[in-house]
Amino acid sequence: MIKSELVQRIAERNPHLYQRDIEILVGAILDEIIEALARGDRVELRGFGAFSTRARQARIGRNPRTGGTVQVEDKVVPYFKTGKDLRARLNQKP
Keywords of this protein's UniProt record, alphabetized (predicted)? Predict the structure, then answer.
């Protein structure tokens, strides 16, 4: 599902809301999650999961096109851990 599909589904379930307002709301939520992660904060949505960051150390990588070695700098990457309720719903037997 992409962002526009998410907005469309929310709009279908809430016909009393304007689609442009839903787009603004979804954008604001995602922007706030991004800003919190950029600050180094952890974002937890109960029942859904938790977003956090992890540091990756610098390493020597390989260029797949040339086969040569490349220095990969250290970086911070996003990490998501699913919540208990989400895992339970994903693993339900029909």
Answer: DNA recombination, DNA-binding, Transcription, Transcription regulation, Translation regulation
> DSSP character for 74?
P
SS (H, E, C) 8-36: HHHHHHCCCCCHHHHHHHHHHHHHHHHHH
Other CB atoms within a 10 A radius of the CB of residue 53 amount to 16
Instruction: Identify any residues that bridge with 79 across adjacent strands, giving them in sequence order.
Output: 52
- The H or E element that residue 77 is part of is strand 75-82
Q: Are 10 and 26 in contact (CB under 8 A)?
A: yes
pLDDT in tens, 10-59: 999 999 999 999 999 999 999 999 999 999 999 999 999 999 999 999 99
DSSP letter for each residue of 43-67: EEETTTEEEEEEEE--EEEE-TTT-
- Reading the block at residue 66, the tokens are 């040339």
